[in-house]
Amino acid sequence: MAATLRHGVFMAPFHALEEDPTMCIHRDLELCEWLDRLGFDEAWIGEHHSAGFETISSPEVFIAHAAAITTRLRFGTGVVSLPYHNPLMVANRIIQLDHMTRGRVMFGAGPGLLASDAMMLGIEPATQRDRMLQALEVILRLFRGEMVTESTEWYTLVNARAHLLPYTRPYPEVSVASAVSPSGGRAAGRLDLSMLCVAAADGAAYDALASNWQIACDIAAEHGRSMDPSRLRIVAPMYIAETRDQARADVRFGFQKFLDYFNNNSPGRFPVPAGTDPVDWFVGRRLGVIGTPDDAIAMIERLQGKQGEFGVFLQQTHDWADWAGTKRSYELYARYVMPHFRGTNSARVASYQWVGENNIEFSGKRQAAVEAMFRKHEAEKVQSAGSG
After folding, report:
1. What are the beta bridge partners of residue 194?
2. What is the pLDDT of residues 157-214, one digit of tens each?
3. Long-range pairs for 134-138 at CB < 8 Å and ≥24 separation?
C-alpha cells in the first residue's frame, strides 16, 4: 500500500532587494506559524551567504525560533552546506536542536549551491561534493556517539565526540540534497539517507529525477538495503488562486524579480525570449504552477508519473504575490490539494454517493413516516374527543 503523501515547504527564501530584510525574516517566521495552523507537515530552511535574495544564513538559528512558535510542524535544514563548517560543530548544533524541538528537527546536508558563497571562503567549487560526503560520514559517526580522530586538508578532529547524544534515537532523519548530478543519490544509497530533490520541475533536474533515485536504489542494494520512497522529497514552485486569471494577475507582483534573481546568478537559467510574457513562458514549460488547486494536483501527479511514489511534496517558497495572496495560496492548497492526496474525504464522498443512489427509497420512507405520524395524531385526537 502506497504511503500517504505529506506536504511542506522549502524556504530558501527569496526576497526582493528593495524590501526591508528584518520584515522579510519575521514574515518567514509568520509563514511557519500559518503553515502549522493549516496542517502542513514540514518546512526546510536554507543556508546562503551571498547574492542578496536568500536572507537566511543559519537555518539552525531560524529553526530554533520557528519551532518555539509552532506546535506540530517539523523543520529541516535545507541544507547545511557542509564544506563551510567543521563537522563536529554541525553535529553539535543539530543535536542541540533535536533536544530543543523534542525531535521535530531533520538534518539536511548538501555541498553548497551558490558558487559565490564558496568563493568568499576560498573554497574551490570542484571540491565541494567530495567534502560534503567526507563531512557527512564523520557527522553520522558523531551522532552515533563514536570518537573521531581525523585530519584532512580542510578540518582536523582529535578525539572528537559529541558530549550530548541525540534526543531522537538513534539520531534525527538525515537527508541529502539532490539536483542534477548523481552525488546526492550516491550518498543516499551508500549511507542510508533520505533524499531532497530540489528544483524538481526545472529542466535537467526533472529529467534526472528517476535516474538519481535509481542510482540511490542500486547503491543501497549493493549494501544489502533498499531505499524507502516515503523518505524521498520533491521540491517545485507553485502559486494558486481561485482562478487561473487571478493567479496570473497576483504573481505580477514579484514573479519577474524571481526570474531576474536566478538569471543574475546563473545567466540563461530562465531564458525568456524578448517580447514573451514570462508567466506564459514559465507555465508553458511546466516549470511550476501558476493556476488553481486543480493545476497543483495535476503537477504533483505528473511528478508522481515521472518519479513513482515519493513521500513529501515541498512547495518552494517565494514572493511572487503579495503577503495576503501568498497566505491565501497556502490556504487553498491545504483546503483542496492536501485532502486530494490524503484521501481525507473518501468516506464523505462514499456517503454522499450512497445517499444519492438511494435517495428515492430514503425519501419515500421519510415521507411515509411523516404521513404515519399525522394519521396517528389525528386518530388520537378522535379517540380523545370520543372519550370526553
Report:
1. 175
2. 999 999 999 999 999 999 999 887 788 899 999 999 999 998 777 776 677 777 888 9
3. 135/82, 135/83, 135/85, 135/87, 135/90, 135/109, 136/82, 136/87, 136/109, 136/174, 136/176, 136/187, 136/191, 136/193, 137/191, 138/87, 138/88, 138/91
- 285 and 146 share a domain? yes
Residue 173 domain-assigned (yes or no): yes
354 and 317 housed in the same domain: no
Three cell numbers, residue 131: 567534502
Distances (CA, A) of 184 to 6, 175, 190, 213, 344: 21, 9, 10, 9, 33
Matching residue, cell 514549460: 285
Sign of torsion over alpha carbons 47, 49, 55, 61: positive
Domain that holds residue 366: 350-387
| Same domain (yes/no): 88, 114 | yes
CA–CA distance, 169 with 165 (Å, rounded to integer): 9
Same domain for 15 and 103, yes or no, is yes
Residues 171 and 198 in one domain: yes
Same domain, 120 and 255: yes
Which residues are CB-contacts of 308 (< 8 A; sequence separation ≥ 6)? 210, 213, 229
- Taken in order 325, 330, 335, 341, the sign of the CA dihedral is positive
By the 8 A CB rule, do 75 and 44 touch? yes
Is-contact 220 208, C-beta < 8 A? no
Beta strands 156-160 and 174-178 are: unpaired
Radius of gyration from C-alpha coordinates of the chain: 26
CATH number for the domain harbouring residue 282? 3.20.20.30
Which three cell numbers mark 108?
A: 539536511
Residue 41 contacts residue 4 (beta carbons within 8 Å): no
Of 51, 39, 38, 41, nearest in space to 12 by CA:
51
Residues 296-326: tens digit of each pLDDT: 999 999 999 988 999 999 999 999 999 999 9
For residue 131, tell me if it sits in a domain: yes
pLDDT of res. 388 = 60
Do 207 and 77 reside in the same domain of the chain?
A: yes
Same domain (yes/no): 284, 220: yes
User: pLDDT tens for residues 29-38?
Assistant: 999 999 999 9
Domain presence at residue 1: no
